Amino acid sequence: MKQQIVKLLAGMASLGIALGAASVQASPEQDRQDLIQYYTAKYPNIKIEDYVYGTLAFDTDSKARAQYDTIMQTPPYQAVLEKGKKMWDTPLRNGKTYADCLPNGGRNIAGNYPYFDEKAGRVVTLADAINACRVAAGEAAYKLGDAATMGTLTAYMRTLSDGMLMNIKVEGPKALAAYEDGKKTFFSRAGQLNFSCATCHVQNAGLRLGSELISPAVGQAVHWPVFHGGDSLMQLQTRYANCFKDMRHVSAPVGSAKLNNLEYFHSYLSNGLPTKASVFRK
Ligand code: HEC
User: From ligand 1's centre to the CA of 247, what distance in Å?
Assistant: First the structure.
């Protein structure tokens, strides 16, 4: 136990978070490297590339990964992706498609989101960019986090970027402030349990919480939305909200600056890992 606490403090200190080190601001790249170092010191046999599989990378039951691969060959949520493709292909009210509106025809771009928009002075998620297309075309914005609309559309749209490496950029003081805000949310303890995201997804990654294995934060942002159980779709910020609930803490709303900044920080941690939409989760 003592050893665990020492390790935990060492990990936190190197991340520049605790122990009075908060004034020493690490760069995003330093944060990412520190986290990777923390995980690889603890789990030297697991490759960072495998972290995209979440808990499966840490599952000692060798059948779990084989089962996952089988399910992914004929995903039970194929019908949802087809619905998303129809939405993607259907012209908006001004006759334009999403492909006309988004950079690069919407292909190989998911790994660039979220990004910091200097003009708007805020983090823009892929869902925001899609809604901006809708509004510019005279359509109503989709409700962020809604599985039937934004979730279904992005489940297909993101497949057009499969294999693209996550490529989040933090450039300039305002972008860095948004990143730091997200980082603060990730490391701040809150709620009745006094947990932070890091309590589970850093210090306890690879361990079990009751019956559930806990995945590492690196690799978590590359594969959204996920489908739970079969075709139950969940988007990334909805997952954040659910984890806040597990912390017995009230989540900021999906699409709020707080969750957007968290997504910005959290996505940066997965830089260099390939995106893949969508994946099956238990
Ligand atoms: C009490 C422990 C706990 C805390 C605290 C917690 N989570 Fe989780 N989280 C889990 C468990 C358990 C799962 C499901 C298993 C898994 O994938 O790790 C999960 C899943 C996730 C996933 C999905 C991973 C995937 O590949 O499907 C993301 C993303 C995530 N959490 C982010 C966060 C963020 C951000 C916070 C802080 C707001 C947070 N979690 C706080 C326990 C926790």
Answer: 10
SS (H, E, C) the chain: CHHHHHHHHHHHHHCCCCCCHHHCCCCHHHHHHHHHHHHHHHCCCCCHHHHHHHHHHHCCCHHHHHHHHHHHHCCCCHHHHHHHHHHHHCCCCCCCCHHHHCHHHHCCCHHHCCEEECCCCEEECHHHHHHHHHHHCCCCCCCCCCHHHHHHHHHHHHHHHCCCECCCCCCCHHHHHHHHHHHHHHHCCECCCCECHHHHHHHCCCCEECCEECCCCCCCCCCCCEEECCCEEECHHHHHHHHHHHCCCCCCCCCCHHHHHHHHHHHHCCCCCECCCCEEEC
Kindly list the catalytic residues.
243
Query: Does residue 215 line the site of ligand 1, with CB under 6 A?
Result: yes
Tens-digit pLDDT profile for the chain (282 aa)?
A: 333 433 443 444 445 443 333 445 789 999 999 999 999 999 999 999 999 999 999 988 889 999 999 999 999 999 999 999 999 999 999 999 999 999 999 999 999 999 999 999 999 999 999 999 999 999 999 999 999 999 999 999 999 999 999 999 999 999 999 999 999 999 999 988 999 999 999 999 999 988 899 999 999 999 999 999 888 999 999 999 999 999 999 999 999 999 999 999 999 999 999 999 999 998
For ligand 1, is residue 248 a contact (CB within 6 Å)?
no
pTM listed for this prediction? 0.93
Sketch out the chain's domains with CATH numbers.
2-74+171-273 (1.10.760.10), 78-161 (1.10.760.10)
**Closest Cα to atom 32, ligand 1: which residue?**
240
